[in-house]
Design brief:
Elements (H helix, E strand, L loop, with lengths): L1 E7 L5 H12 L2 E4 H10 L3 H10 L7 H15 L5 E5 L5 H13 L6 E6 L2 H15 L6 H15 L1 H9 L2 E5 L4 H15 L1
Parallel strand pairs: 1-3, 1-4, 2-3, 4-5
The structure holds BIS(adenosine)-5'-tetraphosphate.
BIS(adenosine)-5'-tetraphosphate (B4P) binds next to helix 1, helix 2, helix 3, helix 6 and helix 9.
């Protein structure tokens, strides 16, 4: 299997690039943000709990996220060549859980794409998306807290993958096509 993790700050283009990666390599696009937003739309009790985290820019608890992910992994695995993990892992506990989940299924992570975009550009993109997205987390105050959460809780995950030797830094500034070109080079090296 080809298992790609796309990693980076909020608005670094994870969702945007994942669509192209899934299409080109025949992977299932597993976006934890999309999974959470789908649950939120149902207005279930779980959805309301999720909203209380997302609207403040906080991460939802690891256990909830890991259980949700394992279900999708088992449902989709027989149908695809691999997965693009978009927005997961976001903590060290999630990174360790993903390693275990994949090992239990006789597979592993092929490459981790580390999208390199500076904070000013991230804020600009998210405020711009906020004009039309209707997302409760695309406003100035929540964006600040998402960036803070990224730097404190998520960025250390990069060191974990660097140590494991599968981290590939991708310059995340440029046109969407240029960035996808860089991503293809990184994936084709490990395929
Ligand atoms: P996510 O849905 O993962 O979203 P994101 O970080 O906002 O965005 P992404 O990087 O995908 O940006 P996009 O391509 O859309 O997370 C949302 C929330 O869910 C989190 O804050 C958290 O609360 C929760 N959550 C998700 N996963 C979790 C987990 N594992 N554990 C706990 N909680 C979790 O790009 C953004 C904008 O930039 C778009 O408007 C796009 O058009 C634009 N753009 C993209 N590429 C561009 C380029 N090259 N140039 C200019 N603009 C570009």
């Amino acid at each position: 299997m080809l298992n790609v993790v796309i990693f980076g700050g909020p608005g670094s283009g994870k969702g945007t690039q994942s669509v192209y990666i899934a299409e080109k390599y025949g992977l299932f696009h597993l976006s934890t943000g999309d999974l959470l937003r789908a649950e939120l739309k149902t207005k279930s009790a779980l959805g309301q709990e999720i909203d209380s985290y997302i609207s403040k820019g906080n991460l939802v608890p690891d256990k909830l996220m890991i259980d949700m992910l394992a279900g999708v992994l088992d449902r989709e695995r027989p149908k695809v060549k691999g997965f693009i993990f978009d927005g997961f892992p976001r903590t060290l506990a999630q990174a360790e859980a993903l390693n275990d989940m994949l090992a239990e299924r006789d597979t592993n992570i092929s490459v981790v794409l580390d999208m390199d975009v500076n904070d000013d550009e991230l804020v600009k993109r998210l405020l711009n998306r906020g004009l039309t997205s209707g997302r409760s987390d695309d406003n100035e105050e929540t964006i600040k807290s998402r960036l803070n959460v990224y730097h404190t809780q998520t960025a250390p995950v990069a060191a974990f993958y660097k140590e494991a030797g599968c981290l590939s830094k991708i310059k995340g500034i440029g046109t969407i096509e240029e960035i996808f070109g860089r991503i293809q080079n990184a994936i084709d090296k490990v395929k």
